[in-house]
Amino acid sequence: MKKLILCDFDGTITRQDTLVKILDRFAGNAWHLIEKKILKEVFGNRIGLKQEFDLCDPKQATRDNIAGLLNEEIEIDPHFKQFLEFCRRESYEFVIVSGGFSLCIDTILKKYGLGSIPYYSNKLLFEKNKLRIENPYSSDDCALCGNCKTMHLRRYMSLGYYIIYIGDSTTDRCPVKYADMAFTKNHLTEYCLREKMAHIPYETFADIQAYLSEVTERYESYKNSGEKNEKYN
Ligand SMILES: [Mg+2]
Ligand SMILES: [Zn+2]
Fold first, then answer.
1. How far is the CA of 17 from the centre of ligand 1 (A)?
2. 151 Cα to the center of ligand 2, angstroms
3. Which tens digits make up the pLDDT trace of 156-177?
4. Are 135 and 114 in contact (CB under 8 A)?
5. How far is the CA of 64 from the centre of ligand 2 (A)?
6. Dist. CA 164 → ligand 2 center (Å)
């Protein structure tokens, strides 16, 4: 079976959320009130993110200033590179699905020499007097998401993929319930506990790699041991 890892970017591949960094630097304090409303599901992240970025001062929040800030202050999970190698070795395809911006993903992948990893995200456009958000992957079926991760998940499922989802926060609520297997941390773990959804809590990509290695190893030894025949005869 074809196996696909759909992975969130902010707070999952990166240790700090790029959007939080940008808003803390360029939007003043009021964005926290909007974020609380997203957490309580007063509205989704498509509407919330637009409101938050409307608070940014476009003269300060330029493309160069944002890239500079992220280059200085964003780190990735220390086990992420190893995990990507593991995925290549074990034939897990890997795709990023992000509620953030292509600028943030491109900047960080370049900073860490990670090459090109396929991704779906929103776009931040720098217009004369404002920052505008473009949502090329919003879905008519979902009122919540700017980039509806469930839409991507469903497309891959219909192509016959087994889907492993990895995420940490509000933009992962939509897809997490549909994945075949889900690794969660922070807000997303709390959400899954509250909603009684199956999930595997993790701290770093090393935990996920260990879990998937063990599953693969157990499966291989089960296949090779003849245990299968004993069990079912
Ligand atoms: Mg996240
Ligand atoms: Zn959605």
1. 7
2. 7
3. 999 999 999 999 999 999 999 9
4. no
5. 30
6. 17
Angle at 104 between CA 103 and CA 106, to 5 degrees: 65
* Number of the ligand closest to the Cα of 167: 1
Distance CA 124, CA 218 (A): 44
Ligand 1 centroid distance, CA of 150 (Å): 15
Q: Check residue 157 and give its pLDDT.
A: 97
* Ligand 1 center from residue 140 Cα (angstroms): 22
| 53-79 pLDDT per residue, tens | 999 999 999 999 999 999 999 999 999
Instruction: Decide if 23 contacts 111 (C-beta within 8 A).
Output: no
* Domain coordinates in residue numbering, the chain: 2-224
Distance from residue 96's CA to the centre of ligand 1 (Å): 11
Burial code of 179-214, b = ≥16 C-beta within 10 A, e = fewer? bebbbbbebbbebbeeeeeebbebeebbbbbeebee
Given a cut of 50, whether residue 195 has pLDDT beyond it is yes
- Domain 2-224 sits in CATH at 3.40.50.1000
| Shortest-distance ligand to the CA of residue 168 | 1
Q: How far is the CA of 173 from the centre of ligand 2 (A)?
A: 8
CA quadruple 13, 142, 49, 184: dihedral sign: negative
Q: How far is CA 136 from CA 76, 177, 226, in A?
A: 26, 23, 50
CB atoms within 10 A of CB 133: 16
